[in-house]
Amino acid sequence: MVTDPLIGRLVDSRYEIVDRVARGGMATVYKAHDRRLERRVALKLMHPHLADSPDFVSRFRREARAAARLSNPGVVAVYDQGSLDGVAYLVMELVEGPNLRDLIATGPLSVKEALGLIAQVLRPLGAAHRAGLVHRDVKPENVLLPSDGSVAKVADFGLARAVTESAQTTTGNVLGTVAYLAPELITAGVSSPRADVFSAGVILYELLTGEQPLAADTPIQIAFRNVHEDVPLVSTLVPQTPAPVDALVTAMTRREPNERLADADEALARLRAVVAELSPSEMSVKRGGATGSLRTQEVLAANAEAARQAVRQEPEADDEDVTPAAGFRTVSLPIGSIGTDAAGATRSLDRSGLATSSQATTSLARPRHGRVRRRAVVMGALAVLGVGGAGAGWWYTQEGPGRHVDVPQVVGLTQQEAQAAVQAAGLVWAAPTRAFSDTVALDCVISCDPEPGSSVRLGAAVTAVISRGIEQKQVPDVLGRTREEATTAITEAGLAVGAVTQSFSDSVPAGQVVSTSPAAGELADHSSAVAVVISKGRQPATVPTLAGLSQQEATTALGNAGLTLGEVTTSYHDTVEEGRVISSSPATGAANVHVGDGVDLVVSLGPEMVTVPEVTGKSESEAVSALEAAGLVVTVSYVWGGLFGTARSTDPAGGQSVRKGSTVTLYVV
Questions:
Q1: Distances from the Cα of 661 to the Cαs of 572, 576, 611, in angstroms?
Q2: Contact at 8 Å (CB) between 21 and 30?
Q3: Which residues lie within the region annotated Disordered (predicted)?
């Protein structure tokens, strides 16, 4: 694994680089430790090859200046800037968690969730617009969702410009992401707060539908559609969308800038007015009709107490400065970890603190001023009709609205918290039922009957459904089964078949399952994907050419080919040098050889040597027999005609060492 050389380096004698977080087209972001202030920070380092480009260096400086001009919890703060080996860097607030693109990938959101998120985007944009800045690159990737449940943060003001500055795009650089660019930015490069409002409107459309409004195959086609086509109504894809929501998206995404909402503050005010008009059922509208993604539902559950506090703190009916939907609080989504770290590893979602968290609030409460006024009117009418004070009080508490209370928001609370809230409201906590839930943490409330917010008589029973957590299924043992058999077994176990890959196996025949992940017997969330590895059988191998190699060289060659050294025998050989391989079994290029097989070797002892026997004085026949028995070839030469038939000498002489099979001349007298 390649390690980033900057990890562990101390920058400016202060910032110790700990880990690499992400790498983009312009810069790499690292997690660092600020030794001076003892805090974790993000260090954004421009790519070295861009250091000579004035455009990119100025963008870095612009991001620092823009962040310094803004003091808003929804803006990623820039703490410091400097240069490392001639390359510019920024030290920024470390925001741990996913971005809005990760959330969009989980599917469409409800009207309540989408409006809450866009409200959090509009707030820091409003601060920028009031400071005379235009972001110019508003897109889901630049909206960070802190995992601690705090408000969403808008990042990367590197393209931001003052409204009074030249607003033309930089030559050679694409401004922002095409799908979110306002038409005037594409056609004339003109920047204004209205351009940021357009981008936010496109994001709102995407949150509600799960799709970009004007998609195409290439960026140039998207740009052409942005200039020549209106953003369609959300209701074309989500028919139940309330008309005020359609109107809000349209007002934010008008092609003509002068017809569009002027800035983020005006857009936020319009959004609040829309919320004030919507009923709870309209706020829950969602494409597909589901109850929400795992992450958003967990957050909605976690925010119940904060939502209840928001309702209690609503202004009085006679407050002249009340803004529409004053009780509206935006959604903040602590989304665990759904991506991959810099190394690509997947991290799991931590639900441990969701049930009691009050930092991240999803409460789109409608003002209750109308109900306060109506009660005042009723009481005033009773007084006019002459009903006495005691009689009016009796009617109000026994027959009138006083006998009805709202069911508290208990979804997401623990069973104990929910019971306390219900009883505190003067209602009866009935014996709850239990059910599995993919979205609500263990022992927390999934739903209740009557629904939260319903007006019921004092003393009515509230029956809650308590979460048993995510249903777990045991991964079946499919080792050795065919792919079809494994698929059937996994599906019948309530799980899904994930990635199917192939791998060589020494022990499992081809076509059968080698392993699964999770492994057999482990528990997994129902409908989770089980990855399956199918055997390709034993991996074939090729016996390399070994003849003439030393035994050590042959062993290395076999290892490189995935083979092992088998039995080694020796043999004399007249032409192969001692210690060199004569032959192998299987032979070079043999078929049906697989990785891990052993290969036997025959190693040469060199030519076999024999000693010429001493045969002087022996008869010719005895001498010939002795020499041939020693493995020599005998040629007889007679001296004086071989009259006596006796061996006189040999050439080579007796006692000398010669190769076996050599020719020896026997001299007979």
A1: 12, 16, 11
A2: yes
A3: 349-368
Beta carbons of 325 and 367 less than 8 angstroms apart: yes
* Residue 420 to residue 441: CA distance in whole angstroms: 19
616 pLDDT more than 70: yes
Q: 633 and 562 share a domain? A: no
Give the integer Cα–Cα distance in Å for 74 and 153: 4
Residue 578 shares a structural domain with residue 651: no
Question: How far is Cα 169 from Cα 90, in angstroms, rounded to an integer?
Answer: 23
What pLDDT, in 10s, does the model give residues 495-510? 999 999 999 998 899 9
pLDDT digits (tens, 9 = 90+) for 43-96: 998 888 877 777 777 777 776 677 667 778 898 888 888 888 888 888 988 988
14/159 same-domain check:
no
Within this chain, do residues 619 and 487 fall inside the same structural domain, yes or no? Answer: no
Residue 531, in any domain of the structure? yes
Q: Which of 298, 372, 282 has its CA nearest to residue 331? A: 298
Closest by CA to 257, choosing from 188, 203, 209, 204, is 188
Strand partners, 600: 585
In angstroms, rounded to a whole number, what is the distance separating the alpha carbons of residues 456 and 461? Answer: 9
Number of domains within the chain = 5
Q: How many residues are there in the chain?
A: 669
Range of the domain at 622: 609-668
Ranges assigned E (strand) in 165-213: none
Q: Is residue 317 part of a domain?
A: no
| Contact call for residues 439 and 467 (beta carbons, < 8 A) | no
How far apart, in Å, are the Cα atoms of 112 and each of 118, 162, 333? 10, 33, 13
For residue 289 the two structure tokens come to 């009709």
Judge whether 72 and 126 are in contact, CB under 8 Å.
no
**Among 93, 112, 145, where does a domain finish?**
93
Burial of 300 (0-12, 13-18, 19+ CB in 10 A): buried
Cα distance between residue 286 and residue 293, in whole Å: 11
| Model confidence pTM above 0.70 | no
Known catalytic membership, residue 137: yes
- Answer with the one of 93, 109, 131 that is the final residue of a domain: 93
Residue 657 has a CB neighbour count (10 Å cut-off) of 10
Which single residue is written with the structure tokens 């020499």? 627
What is each CA distance from 266 to 272, 334, 359, 537, in whole angstroms?
Answer: 10, 27, 26, 67
DSSP, collapsed to helix, strand or coil, labels residue 429 as: strand
CA–CA distance, 164 with 391 (Å, rounded to integer) = 68
Q: Are residue 170 and residue 265 in the same domain, yes or no?
A: yes
Q: Quote the CA–CA distance of 234 and 230 in Å, as a whole number.
A: 12
| Identified catalytic residue from 52, 102, 137, 341 | 137
Give the CATH number for residue 578.
Answer: 3.30.10.20
Both tokens of residue 114? Answer: 């989408």
Contact (Cβ atoms closer than 8 angstroms) between residue 598 and residue 566? yes
Residue 126 phi, psi dihedral angles, 5° rounding? -60, -40
What beta strand segments (E) does 468-572 contain?
Answer: 472-474, 496-503, 513-517, 523-525, 529-535, 564-571
Residue 392: inside a domain, yes or no? no
Does 50 or 97 have the greater pLDDT score?
A: 97
